[in-house]
Amino acid sequence: LDPYLQPLYDALNDMIPPAKLQKHLEEGTVQIAPLAYMRGRTLDNAFVILDEAQNTTLSQIKMFLTRMGRNARFIVTGDVTQIDLPRKSDSGLVRTMEILRGVDGIGIVEFDKRDIVRHPLVKHIVEAFDRSVEKDGTGDRWPPPARSGGPVPSRGPLTGCDSGRRNGRDGERERFERYGYITLKLQYYGP
User: Fold this and answer.
1) What does DSSP assign to residue 176?
2) How many Å is the Cα radius of gyration of the chain?
């Protein structure tokens, strides 16, 4: 097992019993592939997640998004506070959010420190780092300071066709869960 895939396997094992996950992997129902292996593919009837996209280039994320075939759903996740590129402005995720915001059929969900569901100390650690950045002016301020006024009001189920901030706590037919390094959008598409 490649060490860089361990967070993904950890998240999958939190959601799917190990024996069932192994069966899905063997049958090809669940596939895990590096981004570089996506070139040339068309993914029909698929639910595809690009994880850790904050370090992609614009051309890489465009290549990924254009693999979408018939009846496919694509999810792109990333933490813009963890961009490891020499210039944060080179992040394909940040640029893609700017380019695609407002495009019909694309929903953008942005989380902030209120959505942290790891150890309770993590929220305090993030707040301490934010205060340090505000105090000495080092580092980038992303995401922008938290909005005031409490949670975003519910606008009904997210269909992938609306955009805007969601705090991940509203709507009966949707829920957002953060497992380690992967963010999954779970949605019911039935009647």
Assistant:
1) E
2) 17
